[in-house]
Design goal:
Elements lengths: L7 E3 L6 H10 L9 E3 H12 L8 E5 L2 H9 L4 E3 L11 H9 L7 E6 L7 H12 L3 E4 L5 E4 L2 E4 L1 H12 L4 E2 L5 H11 L7 E4 L2 H10 L4 E5 L21 E3 L8
Parallel strand pairs: 1-2, 3-4, 3-5, 5-6, 6-9, 10-11, 11-12
Antiparallel strand pairs: 7-8
Helix pairs in contact: 2-3, 5-6
Amino acid sequence: MAGKQIVFVTNNSTKSRADYRRKLVSMGIPAEVEEVFGSAYSAAIYISRILDLPADKRTVFVLGESGIETELDSENVPHIGGTDPSVYRDIQASDYAAIATGTALDPSVGVVLAGLDFHVNYLKLALAYHYIQRGAVFLATNVDSTLPNQKTLFPGAGAISAPLVKMVGREPVALGKPSQAMMDAIEGKFQFKRERACMVGDRLDTDIKFGIEGKLGGTLAVLTGVSQKKDWEGEEEGVVRPMAYVDTLGDLLG
């Protein structure tokens, strides 16, 4: 890969760019923090540099883990919720009245950001819903329905935002793959030529779709994750099809 610019793009918002860099290095893959572009970082950039929030509405209520908080901190975006122990509890009878009247709500919250949250609960969802109802912008790091682990699937970030979608009747602005807002941000940072870039990934509805809709020069599916060859074979219309595929990344080495 000599002379090639590599960008590691991930929808996993539970880890920061620094966390991912450490993970890659531990696997023997040289990487720098600036080469990692995650959905948590994408969301932080969108909130800090693109959203035009009122001066008194710049706090983010987080449904998610420390990876989101770290990236918001990197952009000096204030936040509440997330890993704060005060929301790691069951809802109490007194909470209903406090939320309904607004006394339990922070008036500076202007954004609700939903990502993968291993500690999601009724209290967090209730708070997030009422912030949105009071005008907060509804964002998601990504809307993946599932995530792979241990050769099976578990709930993804989309499963965290889904109850809110059902309640408010609209989808969040998603800032991970396949959102082209993320592609635009990556292009803006790395200044690459799309026609000379290839998206490599193991999921058709996020990775490969991201590359196709972003009009990259190529898309390469790797059959070690969620999607398999049978998912795009046949003549069915509307199926996301990669330009090429390999069984494993190791196949690229010859």
